[in-house]
Amino acid sequence: MVFVVGCNSKTSCKWLEIFTEKKTLLDVTGKGMYRRMKIKYDITSLERFDDCNVVYKITLPKETYIDIDKIDLIQWKHKTGHYSNIEIENPSHLGKETIFYAYPVKTFKRSFLYSDKFEIDIKLRHFAPINKSSSPSPSITFSVPQFFISCPNNKTIMNDINCTKYLHKLPCNSNSVDRCYFIEIPIALV
Questions:
Q1: Which terminus, N or C, of the chain has the lesser number of Cβ atoms within 10 Å?
Q2: Which family is this sequence assigned to (predicted)?
Q3: What is the pTM assigned to this prediction?
């Protein structure tokens, strides 16, 4: 499955209009129950990002799950945390979607361009048996991950009343109970 995402929309938040390119590629590969989800972000700005942090809010469909015990072994470029659901034994019809956050280790340092790739192993839940002659194969729909950025040195975001609707209080990092303000960079389907 391949999903290509981009956005050319204008917003009333002036700070968000400095982004000239916002692209996301979501790719899920593999066979059987074991799959690999790859998310690639490319964001270009007219102004330099100055010491900004990024977080991805990822929602996995109820038909999938991740093995929380093994996640730290495969993530050295990102730290993940704040999982909404860690139940792995339920079959697909009893499963619940899983929301979690991924925090890239690197930050923006005086750059016009942000490019990152996040990869994670996922597993499919067991599906009820189907009669192949009368039932279609099951399908799974993945939603586009949300992209948030926090630039503590940029006061424009906090002072522009038009930007406040894009502000979200999210966990500051992968294991923090504290909340920080992040602004959502809207990325819509093309």
A1: C
A2: Belongs to the PIGX family.
A3: 0.82
